[in-house]
């Protein structure tokens, strides 16, 4: 049966997938012929990793499969096998519509509701009434009416971890290629900050062991992810840390912002700011880091939030930035908003969370005063 645990010589990976879901997903994947795999807007390593791993699996099973993503994905992920065949919806709409209309199955990865694909692509996918849909995701509060089959486990470190568990539950690990294993490792690595957060489950490392048995070179994968930037990216990082970082020591928090003009000055490429929002948390005592970045094509300011301990990045994203995510790693966006307004909003958010951010003695200190004092 599809439900037996996957045993290696020295360990067993426990499946979290229900018997009903394992059988239903396996049956739907076996019966389909023409599949489109989709993921969220501004896809990250977990999105691209899970999408390409599923694509690799479907190819091995003899299916016609295509990955469609809403918009550009980071350059440092383009080393992955099949990345050059990913269809960009915003640039190839007619082709994307044709692929979706021909599909008998859509596999949706790393998102919990259709709107996360962007307004148009989300509407199109949701409107495919005669096409089966599978959603596999690790975010909170999924839309339970969106898909025929929903595999949702927010306790997983990443969608790539969850996807591997799905393959375990379906007894399909042996089918996975080395390239699929590389994709899964890359997604797990990027979505946990190099296994520095959301990765205390021992099975995370049992899964890594199984991926290594597939022949992956994890050191090379890490180099491909971390050592694949332009010199301008490092100049941009230096500019952020030296010129733009507002540190609020009494609140154990920081804010930095980047306008479209500043990004253009440093020849910004998609993914150049990946991970930079984590860097201020290396300052002693810091609990919160907020990044504000203007989109180069749309009137949107993208918000990234990272936190430690009992500070909920997810709650802050939901309450102030039209977003969501995980407890210590979340994001959102502000539309038709100036950067000054966005910074003001971030200050208000910090004040609202002062009970978990600030020392008791400092909670009455205005944020504006702290920023002025810190940046003199």
SSE order and pairing:
Elements: E1 6-7, E2 12-13, H1 19-31, E3 34-38, H2 45-60, E4 64-69, E5 87-88, H3 93-102, E6 105-109, H4 119-126, E7 132-137, E8 149-152, H5 159-169, H6 178-191, H7 202-213, H8 218-226, H9 231-244, E9 246-248, E10 253-258, H10 260-265, E11 288-294, E12 300-307, H11 313-320, E13 324-325, E14 329-335, H12 339-352, H13 354-357, H14 367-374
Parallel strand pairs: 3-4, 3-6, 4-5, 6-7, 7-8, 10-11
Antiparallel strand pairs: 1-2, 9-10, 11-12, 12-14, 13-14
Helix pairs in contact: 2-6, 5-6, 6-8
Compact summary:
The protein has 376 residues and is an alpha/beta fold.
What do these coordinates show?
The chain is α/β, with parallel strands linked by helices. It folds into two domains: 221 residues, inorganic pyrophosphatase (n-terminal core) (Alpha-Beta Complex); 144 residues, Diaminopimelate Epimerase, Chain A, domain 1 (Roll). The protein is built from 14 helices and 14 strands. The strands form three sheets. A six-stranded parallel sheet has the order 5-4-3-6-7-8, sandwiched between helices.
